[in-house]
Amino acid sequence: MTEWFLYLPQTRIGLDDLVTRARVAEASGFDGVAFLDHLDTPMAPTAPLWEAMTVATWVAAHTERIKVGHVVLCDGFRHPAVLAKQATTLAEASGGRFELGLGSGSMPDELVKYGITAAGPRQRVDALGETLALLSEYWSSEGERAQFPAPTAPIPLVLGGVGPRMLELTRRYADWWNLPATHVHKLPELLPSIGSARASVQQMVGFARHDQGVAAVAETAQRRFGRLGSGLVCGDSAALVEHFRLLERQGAQRFYIWFADFAPPESIAEFAETVIKAGC
User: Fold this and answer.
1) Taken in order 248, 228, 179, 71, is the CA torsion positive or negative?
2) What is the pTM of this model?
């Protein structure tokens, strides 16, 4: 059964509006909601941005069914022991709805700016591997580093990335692998490299609602997000149903839907009614 998450970057939006969108997604049939993890808004460093774990906790407290996570948390922002404790607490508080998404850091300038690390990509992936190994120890019921309480149930791990070393970590540790939007076209090529992990795809959509023209919606979406290449797809519900059915046939089992119109409630609800419920 395909899963559908609303990808909802928590920038340029109030906390109440985040909750409203998450509740609409929950009521409409989405399976989850996911946030980003940066200290500055990507490509707009002066735009307001809320902290990722706090936002996930806040939204989890104001919803009942929907899963909550990130694509993805930056490994360098949190000590592994603290991250393990945060994940256990949020998983328990949400009734098992929290998933832990992790990556090695997609904005190295941000890491340098705030004095977190100047490590290169290889060193950051090595550090992520160390974190993943430590999480297994912290969440164990025995051993010197076991934390208490241990998670009541296993916390799903989502890893994002396409490099050979990230794919190796995916095979070793991940329950889910997330394909970033800029690499959607590589799904068939990369799928054999993820082992037993399940494949998810982050997809920006220029969704033309019933009262909107496809051409106008596509023009605006391309102007805003055309840099994503295959990561942006535009069309009405019929066109999007066909697009996501193709990705399903290629092996995708979850979609992180990122709306080019910044996810007003009416877009979330109509997409769920006309695309998700169409049986993609």
Assistant:
1) negative
2) 0.97
Strands 254-259 and 3-7, how do they pair?
Answer: parallel
CA distance 214 to 12: 26
Q: Can you tell me the distance from the alpha carbon of 36 to that of 43, in angstroms, rounded to the nearest whole number? A: 14
Domain membership of residue 49 as a residue range: 3-278
Helix (H) or strand (E) holding 110: helix 108-113
Per-residue pLDDT 10s for the chain (280 aa) are: 899 999 999 999 999 999 999 999 999 999 999 999 999 999 899 999 999 999 999 999 999 999 999 999 999 999 999 999 999 999 999 999 999 999 999 899 999 999 999 999 999 999 999 999 999 999 998 899 999 999 999 999 999 999 999 999 999 999 999 999 999 999 999 999 999 999 999 999 999 999 999 999 999 999 999 999 999 999 999 999 999 999 999 999 999 999 999 999 999 999 999 999 987 6
CA distances from 98 to 19, 92, 194 (A): 16, 8, 22
| 8 A C-beta contact, residue 69 and residue 98 | yes
CATH number at residue 186: 3.20.20.30
Q: Among residues 276, 121, 251, which one has the least CA distance to residue 186?
A: 251
Integer-rounded Cα Rg, in Å, for the chain is: 18
Provide the domain count of the chain: 1
Residues 6+ apart with CB under 8 A from 82: none
